[in-house]
Write a structure and sequence with these properties.
about 20% strand, Rossmann fold, four-stranded parallel β-sheet, alpha/beta, 15 helices, about 40% helix
């Protein structure tokens, strides 16, 4: 087992990274020979995808290891219809619509929030839901709506903001709730026909909140190893080594590489706030994955007054992807970004056709910025 590290430069140490790459190659050769094929490891989280492309980790791996880029970017899995719901609220003259910056440019069928802002809608970028709450305090005569996005990582902050609004009696604040759960999505990926995954890198930020329990089913029900992973290059390489070691030893367990941040039991205060404000079990529609049962959250009845969809009518319509867009196949791990027929042609970060080219954690944007641009011919 590699020695524990303390400082950030150690997690980017090329000597240590090369040593891990050699260990990975040794394990992968044995495991691939036993299976008669290359091993497919999925990193679920978009943060890991970003690290993999930024630091060239794929180029360090032997041919016996293939990385599959998963759906773990909450902006990337927003369906077009949900963007249109947001636009229908944001375009109301009495509304100040607040959102994280990476959701501003995601295209819906009716355009993007950034385009709506350019057309005169009062759309404001915020860094946290508490910023949105401050906007509501400063504008008592306006309705302030926060676009509540993300997996369990961002849910505690949203929950605490609702609790604060309730304590202050702020009735001009509400959420357009699009929070989603990681575990049902992972199960949907595992149930995808023809996708022969051998192991997983579990999202470290989600695990910081939830702990390891939500991922136990991967090992228990599907007999796949899964490792909770940090976000530096050595984190990713060490986690790949841990997955391959499990495969080599015939084990399937949940292991925690990110132990410097993640407690296996999770963050109790965060979980309590989430449970107080939200209830799980809603069917949610995902870009590229369709409807996933039990993957959505809604506000509990006690806090229903803070639900923007109870205040404003929204279309709630499902929309097809734009012609030629293959975001769904990339999200499901069926297609590498560079093999999309629109990649770098009708779709690039300056003019995104799909959400995967918008967010910095999207697989297409990461590949474009860190590999495609490095290898395209000089002009």
């Amino acid at each position: 087992m590699p020695m524990p590290m303390q400082y950030i430069d150690e997690f980017r140490d090329p000597v240590h990274a090369r040593g891990l790459a050699l260990r990975i190659a040794e394990l992968a050769a044995r495991a691939a020979a036993a299976r008669g094929r290359a091993l497919q490891i999925m990193e679920f989280c978009g943060g890991h995808t970003h690290t993999i492309f930024r630091y060239g980790i794929e180029q360090m791996l032997p041919p016996e290891v293939e990385l599959v880029h998963g759906p773990g970017c909450p902006v990337c899995v927003l369906p077009l219809g949900r963007i249109d719901d947001a636009l229908s609220v944001a375009l109301r003259p009495q509304v100040i619509f607040t959102t994280f910056g990476d959701a501003m440019r995601v295209p819906g069928a009716q355009g993007s929030l950034l385009q709506a802002k350019g057309a005169g809608a009062d759309v404001r970028m915020v860094y946290s839901p508490l910023d949105a709450l401050q906007v509501a305090r400063a504008n008592p005569g306006r309705e302030v709506v926060f676009f509540a996005l993300g997996f369990e990582t961002t849910m505690p902050a949203t929950a605490l903001t609702v609790l604060q609004a309730d304590r202050e009696g702020l009735r001009n604040f509400s959420l357009l709730c699009c929070h989603i759960a990681t575990a049902p999505t992972l199960r949907a990926v595992l149930d995808e026909p023809g996708l022969g995954l051998d192991g997983f890198l579990a999202p470290g930020h989600v695990s910081m909140v939830t702990g390891a329990e939500p991922f136990q089913f991967v090992a228990r029900d599907y007999r796949k190893p899964i490792v909770i992973t940090g976000f530096e290059p050595v984190d990713v390489l060490q986690s790949l080594w841990m997955v391959l070691r499990q495969i080599d030893e015939g084990r399937a367990e949940v292991e925690n590489q990110y132990s410097r941040v993640v407690d296996t039991s999770g963050n109790r205060a965060a979980l309590q706030a989430m449970a107080q404000v939200f209830e799980a079990g809603e069917d949610a529609h995902w870009r590229g994955l369709g409807a996933i049962g039990g993957s959505g959250f809604r506000l509990r009845g006690r806090f229903a007054a803070y639900d923007a969809e109870a205040r404003f009518p929204v279309p709630a319509a499902t929309r097809e992807e734009p012609p030629g867009c293959q975001c769904g196949e990339v999200l499901r791990g069926m297609l590498q970004p560079q093999n999309c027929r629109m990649f770098g042609k009708g779709c690039d970060p300056a003019n995104p056709l799909g959400a995967l080219m918008v967010s910095s954690e999207g697989a297409c944007a990461a590949y474009y910025n860190y590999r495609h641009r490095q290898t395209e011919p000089a002009r």
